[in-house]
Structures are given as structure tokens and as C-alpha cells.
Amino acid sequence: MFARMARTAGTAAYNEYYGRHPERRAADDHLRTRPALLTPGGSHYDEAICGDAAASFRAIDAFVPDTRDVEVWASQLRSAVDLSRSLCEGLVQRGAYAAGIAALDQRFVYTHKGRFDADYGHPVQLPHAIAIVFLVEMDFGAMQHAPGAPVIAESAGQYLRAAQLSLTLAAALRAAGFEAKAHYDAHYDVILPPLAVAAGLGEMGRHNILVADRAGTRVRIGAVTTDARLRASRLVSLGVERFCRICKKCATNCPSHALSDGDLTMTDGIPLWPTNAGRCYGYWRTVGTDCGICMAVCPFSHPDTPLHRVVRYALRRAPWLARVARWFDDRLYGRTWADRQRRQLRPGALSPPRS
Questions:
Q1: pTM value?
Q2: pLDDT tens, 64-118?
Q3: Which of 147, 217, 296, 319 is deepest in the core (most CB within 10 A)?
Q4: Could you tell me if residue 107 is left (phi over 0), alpha (psi between -120 and 50 degrees) or otherwise beta?
Q5: Cα separation of 76 and 90, whole Å?
Q6: How far is residue 126's CA from residue 149's CA, in Å, rounded to a whole number?
């Protein structure tokens, strides 16, 4: 959707894309008439908060890795006894929530560039066989304000952090003698959620967002692909698919009705729940933020407390407890997002968004 929305009427890229997909043109042109994200006109626009978010997004392309950190990291990599472990530990030490390694499945590599007119339509050439994937955590308190402006401010901050980590790691790998490419916001040659699953960082949920251990869907993903010979991480089983089959909270509460409450379907040999990206993004352009309701309402996204650790452990070990867990979640937090907000959005009930 972001690549489609980046097209400008009258340009060669616009004409080429809608020449292949004329059925999308009218709906996409209508979306372009709505206020852009982070601009006045959205129902949840806040000048100060959206201004901070916009600054974070601008900082992504302005970021230059610190040469001292790059050299320190490269030195650690050159001397590492276990390079795979050293890479993941280095990411966590620098602020990543978790990190893993996966073989680069070509199904998760885009075929052509699409975001910017300058290289639109160019074939993606990515010879690397390995992806180093990592997560950064989004603040629980900020996400409880969905779909308000604090959500997109938190998103922007974590996209920036992921970009900083991926660009620094890629530079360190190159300094250590390897080929490497960073993949971060608006500069992805790979599809990150399924790569994160392959790297042992979680499972895909009904909303087609990664569900990570402990943080649930409150994560953003970054990656670096490389020719370094690394050891792939083990897949994890969190009981997500079984729980998502019966929970359906994200689909029930999606204001744009973009999420499916039906069964899994096969896409390129991968089981997924369908998502209507046009409806989802259309709601974003209405409220002026990236919504976040499906992420915030997900029971896996609760804080990492002893109670929730017990529930997550039980779901991993005994998937048949999914219905019991859903029943308790509905009683404790409410079935609808409106009910959840009434219970939690009280003075002092939530932590303030991280700066």
C-alpha cells in the first residue's frame, strides 16, 4: 500500500503500475484525496505529537552510523568464536528486544523496487543467503492510546531505532569483511514478518503481524542480509495459531473490517489469514495515524508480568487451554476495544509514552 500511495498521477511509475492494475486505480486515487498521515485533517491529528513522529521518520534517512561503534562491533565480530551468537548478543546489547538468524527464503524477497520513482521497477538483486532479524519493543502505555497520535509517535520512534540498528550492524559486518545490506523502513528488499518467524522470533497472528514471545505484537522488525556463514535459529512454538483461531479479537475490533474472522488460506504455500490492505490503510488516512488497535487489543501483547508469563507458558504447553485463556482475557480486559479503553484509560492507569 505504501508503494501504491507513493505513485503520482502522470508519472511513468504511476502509468506503469495502473496499466497493470487498472482495477485499483479509482480506489487508490480516492485514498489520495484524504489527508496524508501526520498532517492536519485526520481525526486524531495532534500537532506536537505528530510533529515529533514526522521528525523521527525524517531522521531515518539522515542517520549515519557512529564510526566508533562500527569499529568496535567489527572488531568483536572478527574475533568472535561463535559469530552467530556474537551478532545476536551485539544487537540485544545495543537495544534490540530479541534477535535471530534465518536462511533467506526467496519467497520473502521482493522481486522489484516499488517505493521510490527513482528506482521504480528495478529488479531486486539480493544474492545473500542469510538474514539476521531483530525486534525492537513498542511501549505498552503508548499503544493503549490506539488509534490516537501517541501510537504513530511510538511507531516512528521504533522504526528509527530499528533503522539505526540495522544500518550500524550492516556497516560493522562490511568492516569485518562480509557483504551486508540493511533493511529498514521504506528501504525493504525483504518481507520482514515471515523472516522473523523463520528466525525463531515468534509466529504470525490473525492480523498478519508477528506475535513475539513476551511482547506479543508490540514489536517492530529490522533485518540485515549477509553472505556471512551463520547458524540458523530454531523455530518457536507459542501456541499462537491455535489461540488466534478462536480469539478473533483483532478482527472483531478492527474499525475498517480489514481483518478476516474466517479460516486460514494458503498464499504461496504459506497459511495466512487474509487482510484487506486497502481498507486498513484507508482508515489510517481517516484518523491520521497508523491505528494500532489490532496490536493493542491482542492478548499476547499484555505486559510481561508473572500472571501473563504463566498464561503464555500454558498456551505453549497445552494449546487446548486457548478457550479458557480467551474467556479470562475477555473478563479481565473486555471483549471490545471500547470496553478496554473505559477500563484502562483513567488518570494514572497507563505509563506515559516513551520519549
A1: 0.94
A2: 999 999 999 999 999 999 999 999 999 999 999 999 999 999 999 999 999 999 9
A3: 296
A4: alpha
A5: 9
A6: 36
